[in-house]
Amino acid sequence: MNMIPNVGKAFVPADYKSAVKPVWCPGCGDHSVLISFQRALAELAFPPEQVAIISGIGCSSRIPAYTNCYGFHGVHGRSLALATGLKVARPDLTVLVASGDGDGFSIGGNHFLHACRRNIDLTYVVMDNRIYGMTKGQPSPTTEPDWDTAIAPGGTGLSPFHPLVIALASGANFIARGFAGDIGGCAKLIVDAVRTPGFSFVQILSPCVTFRDDQQKGWKNLVHAAIVPETDDPSRAARRLMTDDGFNTGVLYRGNRKPYQPMPLAHHTPSHLETEFAI
Amino acid sequence: MMKSPSEASLSIVLTGSGGAGVMTAGQILLDAATNCGLYGFMTRSTGPQIRGGEAAAMIRLSSKPVQSPGDRFDILLALDFENLQRFADELPLDSASLIIADPAAGEMPGFLSNTGAAIGLVPMSKLAKGVKGGRIAMVALGILARLICLPEAAIIAAVAASIGRKKPEALAASEAAVLLGASAAPDVAVPKLPLPGAPEQGRWSITGNEATGFGALKGGVKFVAGYPITPATEILEWMAHALPKCGGVLVQAEDELASINMIMGASYGGAPSLTATAGPGLSLMIESLGLAVASEIPVLVVDVMRSGPSTGIATKSEQSDLNIAVYGLHGDAPHVVTAPLSVGDCLLTAQWSVHLAETLQTPVIMLSDQSLGQARVVIDRPEDVAFPTKRLAPEAPGAGNERYAATESGISPMAIPGFPGGQYTADGLTHNTRGTPSSQAKDHVGQLDKRQRKLDAFDFGAHWAEIDGEGELAVLTWGSTSEPLREAVAAARAGGIKVKLIALRLIAPTQPALLAAALEGVKRVLVIEQNHTGQFWRYLRAHYDLPNEVIPIHCPGPLPIRPGEAFAHIQEGARA
């Protein structure tokens, strides 16, 4: 949670918008997620220069340049590591991380586990469309086993990865799911995620209109608000996440683990340490 | 035979199997000698075992500063012969050497008895058993002290400092064992070193990895992320305790991919940052180092090189990562590569490397190696050096956010998060001067130009190389081979050979004008380095004008290039 006090200035979503035009296809869910980010930041009312949005590679990872915040568009799969370094060095900043199902769960899978485990005060938003969009339609770890693609004709035959279960098992402190079609709902989840101390994971189902013709209309009918309230009990959360249909939206788990934030012990000059070597 | 300053040194190796206390004893011997006014150099060799296994503590003592191994050992003291043959290559002995062994250790391996060295048998284990709590390594220390005329009191004082006075029984047992050893020392003549007495001016006892950490701290590093890897881990461990005292923090990353990205994130946030690794880890970091070049994020990556490729010999040295450090990045990615020239020089080179990274907003790879990092030296206190380190920042809030402005120097103002009006996205995508992604030729070329320009236009100053002496013959080297070559050159000069030594601390970017000036009047160059393919020699050939006569001499690790071997090359080079 950012400790910079709200100085009382009112912000509007446009304060967080840059002049750069997105590369996304018309109708892509990521346009909506971008608006959700801007609405959430206006609601949080942090000055744009106090916010950093960090990403890797993929359609979703283009988001930083479309905002008026500080941003870092890094290499594929390593956004959480960039964000970890930034937040540990600069705990005063609000750090959000944007990723996709390929960037976050495949090439970046190991960092996902360890970011959950470390529980640094970050908000991790994964725009999940169950496909690689930027490289034009290959299966990701969340793609259904029978989804036919050129690289996996007839489907991969592999069970999809369950990111929310893995986040819980790895120690994430806040787990939520949203649907890009519900801009206000996603903004609310992002605000909640930022305000909850520790590592907050928000999966946003964000339809790909180009390589997944089933999602845009299909998901609208499938998503539903979670019928049971959020829990702080990991075993209850595990049961509900293991058995949910993948379209249950809302805050699904909120724990109370203390965030990891190593702090300096003193501010001596390095010459203070010379006695270690002096004979 | 080399007549050199190294003759005024004494080299001792203590060997033994796991748990015998060889390393501790070696450290105590070095400490005791240091307190008697000697300089010293200590390196270690161990087998691959995690714990136990064979070990050798190699110590060289001299009344003059010494920072490299000698050519041979004057004394080998073997607590036992367990697996000792594994060290055969690393233990040059001759008929002037002395071997001390325990008759209970069994038959002496042929590689020892065949050297023709004098042999002194002392029942060390039996003597140790005669003292309650007595340890064989302490008996050995007593023998060595007597042989090289170190007062036993100096050894006992060093033992006390090592095990602490809180354990009076252990201390008493050690003292008794040392005295027993001293009285049992064989009556053999060993070259004597003058003992100057406690040094007047300040001296340090420091390892290369510690010096690297300390230098980086002096350079202003505030954030470290790293993943354990031999032989670089000691840098991380030293930083883990030192950094928080100086306003910084360290994170143990899940892998090297994370380490490099964590330090880039921290540096983006304004904290000068470092990671330390070895060849395998550097390989994993290479993609992200390209991002640091493109997004102009200052970071320092210390590669403590070991024998490669692949896992290679993790515990032994080699200068074989020059190619990957210089050429490993894809695309045209100018960056800085440095190399410390001695154990003690790790301090200056690390501090300078932080300065270069911060000032030039670029990644710096510092090529240390195992022979520097894990060696300990006793040196005169290094002089304090201050660099005018400055990460260029925008002048005033809201002063415009041309993060990648194509300035004359190529260095652009870098806002850090929190600075109002400075918002930009650091990007590995080709971008324009504002950081906005672009696939246009003018932006690509403009940014390539300015990133090259900031290195080309920068004045690296006198630290780019150490240049010493005059002559038509020059020895050209880099990094850790510099110190044995410095000794060899001194010996050659003592023998009437005029030879110049040029040791490069700055590997990239190249400095053609400076090297041309340094090679003025030189007709023949020996290029000496420790790797299999002559990476440095080939690099020089690609980028520098060299004299017509170039003699490349390159041999891989794990055996060190010793001063005498280098001296023979210089002699030959002077004749040819």
Give a verbal description of the structure.
The complex is a heterodimer of chains A (about 280) and B (about 575). With about 280 residues, chain A is of the alpha/beta class. Chain A has one domain (about 25-275): 3-Layer(aba) Sandwich (Rossmann fold). Chain A is built from 8 helices and 8 strands. Chain A has helices spanning about 30-45, 80-90, 100-105, 110-120, 165-170, 185-195, 215-220, 235-245; strands at about 50-55, 70-75, 95-100, 125-130, 175-180, 200-205, 225, 250-255. In chain A, helix 3 (about 100-105) crosses helix 4 and helix 4 crosses helix 5. The termini of chain A are far apart. Chain B is of the alpha/beta class and about 575 residues long. Chain B folds into 4 domains: about 5-185, 3-Layer(aba) Sandwich (Pyruvate-ferredoxin Oxidoreductase, domain 3), CATH 3.40.920; about 205-380, 3-Layer(aba) Sandwich (Rossmann fold), CATH 3.40.50; about 390-460, no CATH class; about 460-575, Rossmann fold, CATH 3.40.50. Helix content of chain B is about 35%, strand content about 20%. Chain B has an 8-stranded mixed sheet. A 7-stranded mixed sheet of chain B has the order 9-8-10-11-13-12-19, with helices on both faces. Chain B starts with 8 loop residues before the first strand and ends with a helix. Classes of the chains: A alpha/beta (about 280), B alpha/beta (about 575). At the A-B interface, strand 1, strand 2, helix 2 and helix 4 of A face strand 7, helix 7, strand 9, helix 9 and helix 10 of B. Strand 2 (about 70-75) of chain A pairs parallel with strand 15 (about 425) of chain B, so a sheet runs across the interface.
